[in-house]
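Margin note: ligand = S-adenosylmethionine.
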Amino acid sequence: MSYKEFSYFYDYFNYNADYDALFNKIVSLAATQNVKEGIVCDLGCGTGELAFRFNEAGFDVIAVDNSDEMLDVLFDKRDEVGAYGVQILKQDITEIDMFGTVDLFTCTFDTVNHLDGKKAVQKLFDRVSLFMHPDGVFVFDMNTAYKHINVLADERFDFIEDEADCHWQNTLIEEENRTKISITIFDKQSGEEYSEEFYECYYQLDDVKAMLKKSGLQIVSLIDGEDFGPVREDSQRYLFMVKKEQ
Ligand SMILES: C[S@@+](CC[C@H](N)C(=O)[O-])C[C@H]1O[C@@H](n2cnc3c(N)ncnc32)[C@H](O)[C@@H]1O
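Resulting structure:
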């Protein structure tokens, strides 16, 4: 599910996200498979934090999202930094259509969880497999079932900042393997209030492995997505690197 007005506040409230660490980890993982240059396609790119880093590092970047509001922010940021090497595409990542192959696909910060269930994730994996260069890799993360059930479940977060407040309420719907997220933002400058809802789905690791295999993708590396160490029972995020089955 794509973001609406929340897009305009995404960077403002996302100050805890360490994009440098994530970028460096992805680069080093990809390098182990000799993917060190070429075309990067960031799926569900949001405001482009990762895309701009890849652009600066000399990759040709395609940034894909299907939220008009996110893309609005992305176009503005691209203008600000003059990062015209980043090509922006409005597409649904479960139906991507490319002109050629991609060396490195990325999909981060829970974007896969935002897809509407297993069928959608399978479609994403199929499209990535179709457009990935035979020697390319796909690096993506995913919030775990453990995190949804034991950490996020029914939690409320209140971010009170100078320019805006954000109230974030999770509702675990365990029988549907997903969490409803309700956000209310109060913009202190304009006096306006925005509310939106979306869902994050979660999956058992074995199901993800089966879906990857069905799309002809094999796991090269699977680590904890937060400390980049080995996956544990209580890992809150997985970081996968997969390539085409040889
Ligand atoms: C949690 S944000 C992550 C953004 C970015 N990857 C990052 O690391 O900050 C999820 C993004 O995925 C996008 N998204 C969700 N479903 C999508 C879909 N089916 N096709 C394209 N983009 C999608 C949303 O619009 C949003 O920008």
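The chain has two domains: 5-143+204-244, 147-200.
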